[in-house]
Sequence to fold (462 residues):
Amino acid sequence: MPSGPESFVSHPSYIPEFTHARELLLGHPGRWRIIYHYDGDGIASASSAIRALQRLGYASQASPLVGVEKPRMAELLGATKGPVLIVDTGASWLDLAAAHSAPVIVLDHHKFPPPATLPAHVAFVNPLNWGVDGMSELCAATLTWLFTIHLDPKNWDNAPFGLSGAIADRQHVGGFRGLNAKLVEEAQARSLVVRRSALPLFGSSVADALSRSIDPYFTGLSGRLEEARRLLDGLGIDPSRPVLGVTPAEERRLTNALVARMVHQGTRPEFRDILTQDRWTLPTVGMDAQELSNLQNATGRIGEPGVGIALALGDPEALARARHAEETWRTGVLTGLRRIEDGGVNSRGAVQWFESPETTLAGTQAGLAMNYLVDSKRPLFVFSEGEGTIKVSGRGTQWLVSQGLDLSVVCRDAALSVQGEGGGHRVASGATIPPGARDPFLNEADRLVQLQLRIAPAEAAP
Fold:
């Protein structure tokens, strides 16, 4: 039988954190400012939050943050007289929340420095406080979904945005785990999500879907429509057939061919398995969870995160705008991945790096390149120009984390060494650094990675 979330976690901090946040929100009806990160996880989080506030009859205003932006956070808080809900960011800046005159609720899953005692008007909810890994077992979107369920069980219907955010944050790789899995199982019991088997390909035809695929990314096929058609012809599959029109036998042949290609390109097993792992249909929105994830993530990455939220709120024009954004996003990501496939990346000791002119797409390019294109035994950094700053994204793999990698520490400490700021997760993190600081940042990041992975300087790649 479906159940409530009260028993999902046994840690003594679990219920009190949600209770405090719930009491603050219900005790302050009216207009709330929602501050969220502009990526797919943050947009999905804000979507659930706004839907829950609407259900309560509360007005809200949503404001995105791009990257690690403490000054922007301070600016938004300073411009807000009323209460604030912060999702998918803010854990490192609890001092700003404490200084705000109205209630502040922070729902974040990132690592954070130990906070000072927080005043009663601040509620901080983070799965790391209750022994749940925010890197793999609960993202901001599933955390926010869970919070809205604590507000009102009717908010189980935020399931689509919990799943889409978790997929955007790569927490579906290898299947949902931990608290994510409990939430998905419960949503499945409530018929809010449906498990199925299918290839993760989306497009007007199987050839189009294959040539436009970025996750997985197939060397020699992604970004190459004629090569995709040639492969399908060789497998006896009509390239113009709709993806859902491929027969089970044809799907098996195609899967085997794609897995063989991924083995040849050196893709780690957990990323090859994305081809065959379970997929999830979302009946209330009429699409696959990964498709929704791509749409919301794309709107943020091309600078229109409000469209991703409008999609969740049922705006009749938002779907067409989101699909256009997704096409622009996919083209930009493919451009960067083709550039890496054709030209490679730079090496420095124990790390790899490249530059991307597509600033808001750089983190996505780095993450997918790490999974499908570059040396999986060394973390990858991407640098792109911001407004008077350099944006940095760092990406690793779970295997590297198992060897000792912690990119949240690397990005934080390397950024501090050049008067910047950074943080995030062990497997994926980011930083903002001053102009001209790329090389000293890389030097310090390389030194830290060598220490974490116990690589002697002489063993590091040139």
